[in-house]
Write a structure and sequence with these properties.
The protein is an alpha/beta fold and about 350 residues long. Helices cover about 35% and strands about 20% of the residues. It has one domain: Metallo-dependent phosphatases (Purple Acid Phosphatase, chain A, domain 2).
Length: about 350
C-alpha cells in the first residue's frame, strides 16, 4: 500500500474515532443529566419536618389483619387538556390534578379508617406504575403546565409529597415502590439500561428528598429500583410491578400480549425461585383485571379521562380510576375498590381552589 493511501486511511480512522468519542460523550452526558439533577435535589432541597400522627381509635380485639394497597399510575400531572379540544369531556390542568389527588387521599383514608372498622391495616403500600409526567416525547413539553420538563417533574413531585404527608397522618407505616413509565424517558427509544434516565425518577427523587425526615423516622420507605420491573412482597404474596408499555396489543386489545408476557415471566420462577401471583401496571389508561396462570393481572386506570390523541385517533374515553385494595396473608387480594377521581359535578368542583398546591413556579 502506498504511503499516501495509508496516511489517508489513518486520517479517516482518526476522524471516525473522534466522531465516536464525541457521540459517546454526548450519550454519557444525556445519561448523567437526571442523576446530576437528583444529586442537586438531595443537596439543596429543604426537608419537611414530620409531625406526630393522630391519636387513633382503639383496635378491635378480633380485627382482621391486612395490608392496604394503593396503586397510582398515569398521572400525567404536567399535562394540559383544554375542554374545547376534547368535546368538553375533560379540563385537565394543575388545579384539576390537585383536586383528584385530594380525592384519592380522602377516599383512601375514609374507606380504610371509617368504613372498614373491623380491619387493622399493618401498613399502606403504594405501588407507582409510571407516567407520573408526560415528559418530552410527542412534543409534550410544549403543551405542558410549565413548558419545562424539570419544572414539571418538581411540581408533580411536590404534589405527591403532599399526598404522602396526608396519608402518613393516618397510617403509621407507608411503603412506596415506584418504577418509570414510557412517557418520562429521555431517549428517543426505550433504553432498557436507563430506567433512571427518566423524568418519573426525578419526580420521585423530589418526593424522597422532601420527605427524608419521615424516612429517617422509620415510618416511610421509598424504593426506586434501577429497573423497569420489580418484585414486591406483600403479606407473603408476590407482586410484579411494571408500567406495561412493552406489552403489545392486537387490534387495540392487549389481552394476548398480557398472556404471553405473564406466561413467560411466570416461567422464570423456575430460575428465580419466586412465584409471581399478581402483575400490576398501567399504560393502557383503562382499569381492568385479567387472570393469568398463577394469579391475576391488574391494569390500573389513569387520571385524565381522555386527551386530544386518545379521543381523535382512538375514540377513547373513560372515567379516571385508581385502585385501592386489601391484601390478606391467607387470601391474597381480598377486596378492591376502584377510586373514582372525578365527582359528578367535576366541571364546577375542579375550578375551585384545591387543598394541594403544585405551582412551585407560579
Amino acid at each position: 500500500m502506498e504511503d499516501k493511501d495509508l496516511q489517508s486511511e489513518v486520517t479517516q480512522l482518526k476522524a471516525k474515532l473522534a466522531d465516536a468519542k464525541k457521540q459517546l460523550t454526548e450519550h454519557r452526558n444525556e445519561q448523567a443529566i437526571i442523576s446530576i439533577l437528583a444529586k442537586d435535589l438531595r443537596d439543596t432541597l429543604p426537608r419537611i419536618e414530620p409531625y406526630k400522627p393522630l391519636t387513633r381509635k382503639a383496635v378491635i380485639k378480633d380485627a382482621i389483619n391486612e395490608t392496604a394497597l394503593l396503586v397510582l399510575s398515569d398521572i400525567h400531572g404536567d399535562q394540559i387538556i383544554l375542554p374545547g379540544r376534547v368535546q368538553d369531556m375533560e379540563n385537565y390542568n394543575p388545579t384539576a390534578v390537585a383536586h383528584r389527588a385530594a380525592r384519592i387521599v380522602d377516599t383512601t383514608v375514609s374507606h380504610l379508617t371509617e368504613n372498614m372498622t373491623q380491619y387493622k391495616f399493618r401498613e399502606l403500600v403504594v405501588l407507582m406504575a409510571g407516567d407520573l409526567v408526560s415528559g418530552e416525547i410527542h412534543k409534550s413539553t410544549q403543551h405542558s403546565a410549565w413548558r419545562n420538563p424539570f419544572k414539571n417533574a418538581l411540581a408533580v413531585g411536590e404534589l405527591i409529597s403532599q399526598m404522602f404527608i396526608d396519608l402518613l397522618h393516618h397510617f403509621d407505616n407507608v411503603r412506596v415502590v415506584s418504577v418509570s413509565g414510557n412517557h418520562g424517558r429521555r431517549s428517543i427509544k426505550k433504553d432498557y439500561r436507563g430506567s433512571h434516565n427518566n423524568w418519573d425518577y426525578l419526580v420521585m427523587m423530589h418526593v424522597k428528598t422532601r420527605l427524608d425526615e419521615y424516612i429517617k423516622s422509620g415510618r416511610l420507605e421509598i424504593v426506586l429500583p434501577e429497573a423497569y420491573t420489580v418484585g414486591v412482597e406483600i403479606e407473603g404474596w408476590n407482586f410484579i410491578l411494571n408500567h406495561f408499555d412493552d406489552i403489545r396489543s392486537f387490534q387495540g386489545i392487549p389481552w394476548y400480549g398480557i398472556e404471553r408476557k405473564t406466561r413467560r415471566m411466570a416461567a422464570l420462577s423456575g430460575v428465580t425461585g419466586v412465584t409471581p401471583h399478581y402483575f400490576v401496571g398501567g399504560h393502557f389508561h383503562n382499569f381492568a383485571t385479567q387472570q393469568h396462570t398463577l394469579g391475576e393481572v391488574i391494569i390500573n386506570g389513569k387520571w385524565p379521562a381522555t386527551d386530544e390523541f386518545a379521543l381523535e385517533a382512538l375514540g377513547a374515553f373513560g372515567e379516571p380510576f385508581q385502585l385501592l385494595a386489601g391484601v390478606h396473608a391467607k387470601h391474597g387480594l381480598s377486596w378492591r375498590m376502584p377510586i373514582k377521581l372525578r365527582s359528578v359535578n367535576w366541571r364546577d368542583d375542579e375550578v375551585t381552589e384545591p387543598r394541594y398546591r403544585i405551582g412551585l413556579f407560579d
